[in-house]
Amino acid sequence: MPSPWTATSTCGLHPAVSDPARIQTIELALADYLRRWPEEAETVRRIRELLGGWPQCLERTHTPGHLTASAWVVDPTGTEVVLTHHRKLDIWVQLGGHADGDPDLPAVARREVLEESGLEDMQEIADPWWIFDADVHPIPAYRQTPAHYHYDIRFAFRAIRREELVISDESHDVQWVALADLEGYTREASMLRMARKWQELRPALLTGRDSVYPAP
């Protein structure tokens, strides 16, 4: 059955979306993610369905939802993560935001880190298109924007240095938060899931071992 979000035009969108390799890259990354986390098959299915609306699904104007990219950014020791106290949502979350037509989602995540925290000197953990986490979650209506869903693709980065963070106008605050203290900031399910994943994969990821798959 064709997707209800089938794209009809690429006019006005990022020029890279016309390259078929772009959507193939996302699909391959999702397939790899599903191999690592088969229990998240429903999330992957929903994101794949959204991709039927390519490339409009990259735009924030695409309803009922659109692709976003975010970043799990740890300090050099891997024991702290950067969280922002989101101004609109009034919750503590990882850094991230809208693709705004850009299909290079790892680059979108990196750009959002810089814009929301001032942190620039960091490196990808594993391959740039290695998806750390994926989540589909509702966003409440805000002013003229109706309620919708974010189909969030999440990437992992490690800061080269534990730099002082800069609060943007999108946040009430931004902090390095010790993973041991995370539940004092949030009990949101996907945030705790990312913390569990990180604790499980951290030894391999920080030492560059070949296997970044969860233990059976």
Question: Please, could you describe this protein's structure?
Answer:
With 216 residues, the chain is of the alpha+beta class. It has a single domain, classed as Nucleoside Triphosphate Pyrophosphohydrolase (Alpha-Beta Complex), CATH 3.90.79. Helix content is 27%, strand content 25%. The strands form 2 sheets. Strands 1, 4, 5, 6 and 7 form a 5-stranded mixed sheet that branches. It has a 3-stranded antiparallel sheet with strand order 3-2-8, with no helix packed on it. β2 (80-86) and β3 form a beta hairpin. The longest helix has 19 residues, at 189-207. The model is unreliable at 1-12 (pLDDT under 50).
Return residue spans where pLDDT drops below 50 for at least 5 consecutive residues: 1-12
Estimated radius of gyration: 17 Å
> Structural class, judged by helices and strands?
alpha+beta
User: Per CATH, what is the topology?
Assistant: Nucleoside Triphosphate Pyrophosphohydrolase
- Provide the number of structural domains: 1
Number of helices: 4
Summarize the structure.
By secondary structure, the chain is of the alpha+beta class.
Features:
216 residues; alpha+beta; Nucleoside Triphosphate Pyrophosphohydrolase; five-stranded mixed sheet; three-stranded antiparallel sheet; 4 helices
Please specify the SSE layout and strand pairing:
Elements: H1 20-36, H2 41-50, E1 65-74, E2 80-86, E3 92-93, E4 95-98, H3 105-117, E5 122-124, E6 133-139, E7 148-159, E8 171-178, H4 189-207
Parallel strand pairs: 1-7
Antiparallel strand pairs: 1-4, 2-3, 2-8, 5-7, 6-7
